[in-house]
Design brief:
Order of helices and strands: HHHHHHHHHHHHHHHHHHHHHHHH
Structural class: mainly alpha
Number of helices: 24
Distance between the termini: 14 Å
Shape: globular
Strand content: under 5%
Length: 563
């Protein structure tokens, strides 16, 4: 940050001061140089390609709903429907916050800006940078696109409402941005403490089970509609529910636009004012959280130092057998138990199985879903471990150098990590299997045999691909924060492609056998693939020391760097 320090004591502080503008320019220049210099390496090129591909994927996901939202806003404004803007804005609000809070692996781009606090950066400047960096989150970009589509649809139908609609939607978008950043910041703080982490996890799972418990009430129709909701039911919302939703931000924004349609600007301005109160509330919570962090708060569970001298008492080992593999397993287990975000990732697939377990009941694909519920559930078991398997050295940080100095071969270290991840997968798979059996009943013997055969193929294939990615495309993991770290895009994209490839192999074998009515044929075929996957895994494991030796400097650079 050269050239940004104040030249005299009379320099004014603030996020729009001359000093702040020089800091913005210096940071933009640094980020540009980092980006351009990164393109000189193979990894940087892969990372750029992954970002471009990710952009197109999210664009494809967002464009379709945005067109639908725009068309819905157009017809709603054309016919003066009061329900239309409320439904559209509630969809935008729920989708934005859902992807921002419940999908941190994809949308949790909470920026790491604590390194800027060592420079003369004011809190206002730091807060602005925090929000600007948050604009890169996919949830934010998709939310901006959907809000723009709604605004365009209303403005085309009612050009006289362009300014009013733009102001209302801008305020609503700013509220969603602040709220998503606030939720993620507070979740990180809560997950950094063991007791609050347990409470949040319990509440999270309780709510998910509560949603699942409501499924029978939603499935009384039997007419093929999702969750039994007919087309005419949204048109008959009870007045009490309508009045309740009006006091929340989506309802206030929708009512502000509707009042403008009815030529009642004073009532619309009142709704916009209450929406501004929500903006101030969300901003105040975010400032409260970031103020503590800017003053040097450390998100860790490390105990405070005591001034009294105490005799050091060694805590009993979690494992009662010795050896380097046991030491690696115990270390990784301690890391995992103290990392809220990693436990969050492990719990998310269980919740997704519970929440989406009752989807599409009574539809045409219901029989297929019930028959293949067990192998579909096993796919979720892998998703929670993808970040651990495909970047198994990322959590080491500065400790990676001790592995290089230790006489223990890296092959043994990687084997210990793979064994630990295997235990986690078996635990996850057991819990998901119990949920599937409880929800759908015991699957057929042929499906169980095919699923076990596919797992014998998928596990070594995942570990082989994960070991290669961990050595060739590692990145440092912050165990106390929910964020996408620098260098994680390329690794994450390749790991997801690996998951899709393994899933495609299982589907390509099981689907034809199921169509022919011979599910038992899939078991020997998948066992043959399992033998090949095991051979590949052993070859990769045997070459670990050579690969690590050739990339030791790069591994040290990527895993030990702090920003």
């Amino acid at each position: 940050m050269a050239g940004v320090a104040p030249r005299n004591s009379a320099s004014r502080w603030g996020f729009l001061s001359p000093l702040a503008r020089r800091q913005y320019a210096a940071l933009a220049w640094i980020q540009t140089r980092i980006f351009l210099n990164g393109l000189r390496t193979r990894r940087g090129s892969v990372e750029l390609g992954a970002r471009i591909l990710t952009f197109f994927v999210f664009s494809a996901i967002a464009i379709g709903p945005s067109i639908g939202l725009g068309i819905g806003a157009y017809f709603g404004a054309s016919h003066g429907l009061r329900l239309a803007p409320a439904v559209l804005l509630w969809v935008l609000f729920l989708a934005w916050q859902f992807f921002a809070a419940l999908a941190p692996a994809l949308a949790g781009q909470n920026p790491e800006l604590s390194h800027l606090l060592r420079y003369p950066v004011s809190f206002g400047t730091w807060l602005v940078l925090f929000l600007v960096y948050g604009l890169a989150a996919p949830s934010t970009l998709i939310g901006l696109l959907w809000a723009t589509a709604i605004g365009v649809g209303i403005s085309v139908a009612r050009p006289d409402l362009f300014v009013w609609t733009a102001l209302t939607l801008a305020l609503f978008v700013f509220f969603n941005l602040l709220l998503s950043r606030t939720i993620l910041a507070w979740i990180e703080r809560w997950l950094a403490q063991r007791r609050t982490r347990e409470i949040v996890t319990a509440i999270f799972l309780f709510l998910a089970l509560g949603v699942q418990a409501l499924n029978p009430a939603f499935h009384q129709s039997g007419h093929g509609q999702f969750y039994g909701i007919g087309r005419q039911k949204p048109l008959h919302l009870p007045s009490r529910v309508w009045n309740v939703q009006r006091v929340f931000p989506p309802g206030l924004a929708a009512d502000s636009i509707f009042q403008a349609m009815q030529h009642h600007p004073l009532k619309g301005a009142e709704d916009m004012g209450w929406l501004g109160v929500y903006v101030l509330g969300a901003g105040g919570l975010l400032v409260l959280r970031l103020r503590s962090e800017s003053r040097g708060e450390n998100l860790s569970e490390a105990p405070r130092r005591s001034t009294k001298a105490r005799a050091k008492v060694r805590s009993p080992a979690l494992l009662d057998f010795s050896g380097p593999i046991a030491a690696v397993i115990e270390k990784d287990l301690r890391y995992l138990l103290r990392s809220g975000p990693m436990l969050y990732n492990l719990a998310a697939p269980l919740v997704m199985v519970v929440v989406f377990g009752g989807a599409m009941r009574g539809s045409k694909v219901s029989s297929i879903r019930l028959e293949y519920a067990l192998p579909i559930g096993m796919v979720w078991a892998f998703l929670g471990l993808t970040r651990l398997i495909c970047n198994n050295l990322g959590a080491e940080g500065d400790g990676i150098q001790f592995f290089f100095l230790s006489p223990t071969p890296m092959r043994t270290v990687i084997l210990g990590k793979n064994f630990f991840h295997l235990v986690l997968f078996l635990l996850e798979a057991t819990l998901i299997s119990a949920l599937v059996i409880f929800r759908f009943g015991v699957p057929g013997p042929s499906i169980v045999a095919a699923t076990l055969a596919w797992l014998l193929f998928a596990v070594p294939a995942n570990f082989a691909a994960g070991n290669l990615l961990s050595i060739n495309m590692p990145y440092r993991v912050n165990m106390a924060r929910i964020r996408r770290e620098t260098g994680a895009v390329g690794n994450g994209l390749l790991s997801m492609l690996t998951q899709f490839g393994i899933l495609a192999v299982g589907a390509a074998v099981l689907a034809p056998c199921g169509l022919l009515g011979h599910n038992w044929w899939a078991t020997p075929i998948l066992l043959a693939f399992a033998v090949v996957a095991l051979f590949v895994y052993l070859r990769v494991l045997g070459n670990v020391d050579r690969m690590v030796q050739s990339r030791m400097e790069s591994l040290t650079l990527e895993i030990m760097k702090t920003s």
